[in-house]
Amino acid sequence: MPETNPILDQLIEANTGFVHALALRLAPAPGLAEDIAQQVFLEFIAKAAQWDLTQDIKPLLAGMTRNVARRCWRDKTREMPEQMRQLAEHIRELAAAATEDSNWHGQEEKKALHQCLEKLPEKSKKLVELHYYLDLTSVAIARQMEVNADAVRRALFRLREHLRKCIRVMLARS
Amino acid sequence: MPVHDMNQSANQNEVETLTQGYLEGSLTPSESPRLLALLKEDPARVKLILANLQTDALIKEVVDQSDWVVRTSTAAALSADEILPAILIEEIDFSALSASVETLAQPNLPAPQRWRVPSRRTWLLMAACIAILLSIAFLLLSPLESTPRVASVADAQTTVERAGQTLAASKGMRFASGDVLKTDTNGTAAINFGREQTQIELAANTELKILDWKKSKRFELQAGEIKATVARQRWFRAMVVITPQAKVTVLGTEFVLSATTNLTRLEVRKGQVRLMRQSDGKAVQVAAGSYAIAAAGSELAALPITGKVLREVWRHVQGSEVHDLRLQPGFPDRPDELGFLAALETLKETNDTFGVRLRGYLIPDETDDYTFIVSANGAVALWLSEDESPENRVRIAQASAGAQSSEATVRASFNATQRQSAPVRLERGRRYYFEVLYVHGAGQGDPALKVAWTRPGHEAEEIPSECLAPFITERGAKR
Description:
The complex is a heterodimer of chains A (about 170) and B (about 475).
Chain A: H1 6-26, H2 32-46, H3 58-78, H4 82-97, H5 107-119, H6 122-133, H7 138-145, H8 149-173
Helix pairs in contact in A: 1-2, 1-3, 2-3, 5-8, 7-8
Chain B: H1 3-24, H2 32-41, H3 45-65, H4 80-89, H5 94-105, H6 120-141, E1 149-153, E2 159-162, E3 165-168, E4 180-182, E5 189-193, E6 196-202, E7 207-212, E8 218-230, E9 239-242, E10 246-250, E11 253-259, E12 263-270, E13 272-277, E14 283-287, E15 290-295, E16 303-304, E17 309-315, H7 322-326, E18 337-341, E19 354-362, E20 368-376, E21 379-385, E22 393-399, H8 407-412, E23 424-426, E24 432-440, E25 449-454, E26 461-462, E27 468-470
Parallel strand pairs in B: 8-9
Antiparallel strand pairs in B: 1-5, 2-3, 2-4, 4-7, 5-6, 6-8, 7-8, 8-11, 9-10, 10-13, 11-12, 12-15, 13-14, 15-16, 17-18, 17-19, 19-24, 19-27, 20-23, 20-25, 21-22, 21-24, 25-26
Helix pairs in contact in B: 1-2
């Protein structure tokens, strides 16, 4: 297990971003990249004795990520209604074809986001809390407040845009 | 506003609304084609989706790991007036943000000619910087603190032993490191961890010692049984439960663990758990739908859980054939009822129209050529996979609603050829995914369903429960 092998710990830590970013492109659905990354590392740890840890493990992790992502994506979309599956498959194809390398967020982004969250007006913080902390969907939030779900969706979308801009500003300035 | 601008604005609103729906998983089937069309119109929009998915993961991670959330507020306490106008109208104060960052950075200021006593404002700024740095350091370096508390107690005799004293356990009571929570013959109790979605339920006659939770959650199950639903734990901070015979390590899953003086049994409902035998250090990964036992003289291996099957029910199905169930709103993801049964049974207490899906794995106890027979008062179809993957299932037997049978006929006869599969070769001990869909329509009398198998030289018999294992998804507990 991780706590018993510091080399393994370091390798996992160093490659967490790589696996997450690849998983996101291979299976662009909410929450799936994190599930895939966790499963990849669980499998990697389980078979750790087989790997030569002195070599670059990125190709190995990339292969494992592809396999796990394929499996997870299949599970995720298997029983979707047809229209939703078509949409999901289209997004996956476009994401897989996207050539630019995306990096997963690191500590700097986390620090920046934390500061941006602190800058939010109190009411916006509450929306973040409802959606990201209590895991309520915009439909659930709208139902509780008896308003149109589309209004909540737009509010969440714009809030996220603001936060992303804010992170960029913070990183550029630091 | 010009018509062109209005259209553009409406289009932008639509993109935002639908994209947000996809990102949070609330997009409906009827909305999907529109988002698909918008993406085909401008494929670059997929980059926005990817960026947003990543931002969501970042926000969630930071919100989950930090304490900035206003904990006292609840969803129920908020109204539309409190949130929406503010979100839609208020902008984040970027000018203030930029100014404050510029104030912090200042790399190009000319070097001072001589040292001057800093102004009060400078002192305040320095103090603010130090406070921010300390806060960040605290957030990054401090352990995950989510103090366990008693979530529920079902009996007054449930106690907490603390430093040699015995205290009555009560709801909301905070645990200290080293506490032992004990339930008696009639008692049950549950522990939760603040905002984390982890819960541990103690069955009767259980003793659980809380060792630690600051770096990682560590418990000692001294006797009895616990059922745990564990939210995904932080990297390298897996939850650990120690029993007299074993050590159980988990990152995020749902499992039942029981311990007696001579054996430990682990049953995994979701995810994957590692069980290590204390006596020799041998370990096994136990996946969803499997169990393992750590005991002297017992082989340490993950074995499938048998004796149960997953039943999902959809009420008020429009129609009486199997394909009508497949067209039912809520099928296949949102059944009206869900539970585990010991046999392949339908609902019996109603004459209403409904559909049932039974899912699980067949684990034959002998290698042979098996023939399957379905008999029902209603429509029924049986799918079987060549392995444990639901993807490889094929329909091997069916009976339509037209071929109605009375319950007595269903119970007595298995001869109708249209309800019988061709012989299928199954190997002993292997898991084969199966699925039964049954629809009971209006005016069809009492619901009845029977699924049986036979093999050369043997009578037809209902599939024994020890050859059935429930279908369990591999997904983690939270999300």
